[in-house]
Design a protein that fits this description.
The chain has 255 residues and is of the alpha+beta class. Helix content is 44%, strand content 22%.
């Protein structure tokens, strides 16, 4: 029994370490995804200083080169009015629909009212289209003055899908929350047999804070089930039985 209990505890520690390590890796993946978008937008603003005066020459070509993580790029003045948008069709899509402008502007004010000297990230509340967006906002600062912003617009789900794909393929279930709002994945209450090994972590970058819940999904949980402790318990039980039987037979043979 002692050997069985020791083995069970060792297996539990191993599972906990694996899940905790994966939760930390997911946190770093999400931070990296946000930082990559901020770096791309920062480089875009640096390479196009004319944006400060509303000069959008070469904007189309630059969008084609920098748009991989973004669905739209917006050039805003200091009052957050749109100077230019690419692609132009974004106005009639959920990327930058007119009905979503106020919700998007509210999110941008979070990072522009106390403007950073570098690109910053914020997420929107659910827009009229039903989706949430990740906005990367970089100030246009010729010299020492601020003259507007460039904003990269992307779907929050696209960011999470790309960053969490490896963990999902590895067999983990993941839920992501913003505050109390569930925004992605699977909730712990619906998680199945691996939830006793669930771990939490937090991704924090600028105005973005995602709380992550991660645990082994059903298939991986079955792989984690240890058979060694059961064998130890079974063999120990058999050993105890045969020792007892031997003592019993020895007593019967004793004159």
């Amino acid at each position: 029994y002692a050997l069985w209990l020791t083995s069970v505890r060792a297996e539990q520690r191993t599972r906990d370490a694996v899940v905790q390590s994966e939760a930390g890796r997911v946190r770093e993946e999400l931070v990296h995804a946000l930082d990559t978008r901020a770096a791309l937008l920062r480089r875009f603003v640096t390479e196009h200083p004319g944006l400060a005066g509303g000069d959008t020459t070469g904007f189309e070509q630059a969008f084609g080169e920098s748009s991989a993580p973004f669905r739209a790029l917006l050039v805003l003045d200091s009052a957050l009015a749109v100077r230019r948008m690419l692609p132009a069709a974004a106005r009639v899509t959920s990327a930058a629909a007119l009905s979503d402008d106020e919700s998007r502007a509210t999110a941008l004010r979070v990072v522009t009212e106390t403007p950073p000297r570098d690109a910053a990230v914020v997420t929107t509340a659910p827009l009229a289209s039903g989706e949430r967006q990740v906005l990367v906002c970089a100030p246009v600062t010729p010299g020492s003055r601020r003259d507007g912003f460039v904003v990269g617009v992307g779907r929050e789900r696209d960011v999470l899908d790309a960053a969490l794909a490896r963990s999902v393929r590895a067999g983990f279930a993941i839920g992501v929350f913003e505050g109390s709002d569930f925004v992605y994945g699977t909730q712990l209450v619906d998680g199945g047999p691996g939830t006793q090994n669930a771990r939490e972590d937090v991704t924090l970058r600028d105005a973005v804070m995602w709380r992550i819940e991660l645990w082994p999904a059903a298939d991986l949980a079955r792989e984690f089930e240890a058979h060694a402790p059961l064998w130890i318990l079974a063999l120990g039980t058999l050993l105890g039985f045969f020792v007892s039987l031997s003592l019993y037979l020895w007593r019967d043979d004793t004159p």
